């Protein structure tokens, strides 16, 4: 594969699957700096993986595989969760002004952040609608093990959501920045 | 709330992108990221190979051209070459083994663990090697009747090396422990 072809495929993937990248990044990182750092790490790994992609699996599955592996490695590095943010640093991810913050979605991410890194990966795949078989391939564990873990996660999520309902989290949304 | 509803909340984010990507900056970072892919293990191996071959060649040359040749310094040169060759062989084995791991979270984790175990073993062996090197150099000094302060200097230097390499070994052990915890999570 030539560098130009790789560049072309990468550009296509980035444009087509950027929503997927954002979801993965938000699942594993909390602060804006960490999200930016993880996003770059994932994108570099995806770029490097392009020559190895054999078209045997869907692009989205391939990207999930690379991205989750990268995110799991990234979370065990010591530099994560920096509390002090360097606001002058040039960032790759630029927050959209006027983006609507869904409080229920923020709650869901908060719940996911409290999970360990393996459960986080499985929750992400569950919410994205992957089958147990696909999850087993991506994570590298047996389907029955996936089943056990997923049923534990589902139970936990449902119980937590019911508790959350008591505090009145409904379908409300607020703006990050009010559009002019 | 049922799971379907949670899934509905999750898919609501598909409608709107919370970020845009600065593609020019991203491209610049990718290029610089590609340049810094050299792993810490590669660096440690490379450094030990260069130091082993370098000191082996240097001591061999100075000993053979010296009027007072030392048997122990010859032993030291041979030992330095042997250690460098063993590290080259271990490096080749490590790289070949790296291709066996599958591309899943478990596969990557097992690969990471294999590298971490290798790092711990290598740093431990190189730490013990300080004793061998120290003994050969001290015997060499004694054989060539060097002044006492040279012996004190070598002992101080070797002790310092032993102390610093302890930190390195602890760092690798911490990394291995973190990976083992992750593997335990996967198996739970």
Write the layout of secondary structure elements.
The complex is a heterodimer of chains A (180) and B (188).
Chain A: H1 3-16, H2 18-28, H3 32-49, H4 59-75, E1 93-95, E2 100-102, H5 103-113, H6 117-127, H7 132-139, H8 143-166, E3 173-175
Antiparallel strand pairs in A: 2-3
Helix pairs in contact in A: 2-3, 2-4, 2-6, 3-4, 6-8, 7-8
Chain B: H1 3-11, E1 19-21, H2 23-35, H3 40-65, H4 71-98, H5 105-143, H6 148-187
Structural commentary:
By secondary structure, chain A is mostly helical. Chain A is 63% helix and 5% strand. Chain A has helices spanning 3-16, 18-28, 32-49, 59-75, 103-113, 117-127, 132-139, 143-166, and strands spanning 93-95, 100-102, 173-175. In chain A, helix 2 (18-28) crosses helix 3. The radius of gyration of chain A is 18 Å and the shape is globular. Chain B is mainly alpha-helical. Chain B is 82% helix and 2% strand. Chain B has helices at residues 3-11, 23-35, 40-65, 71-98, 105-143, 148-187; one strand at 19-21. The two termini of chain B are 27 Å apart. The mean pLDDT of chain B is 83. The interface between A and B is large, with 51 and 40 residues. Strand 1 (93-95) of chain A pairs antiparallel with strand 1 of chain B.
Distance between the termini of chain B: 27 Å
Find the structural class of chain A using helix and strand composition.
mainly alpha
Question: What is the typical, i.e. mean, pLDDT of chain B?
Answer: 83
Tell me the number of strands of chain A. 3
Strand order of the largest sheet of chain A: 2-3
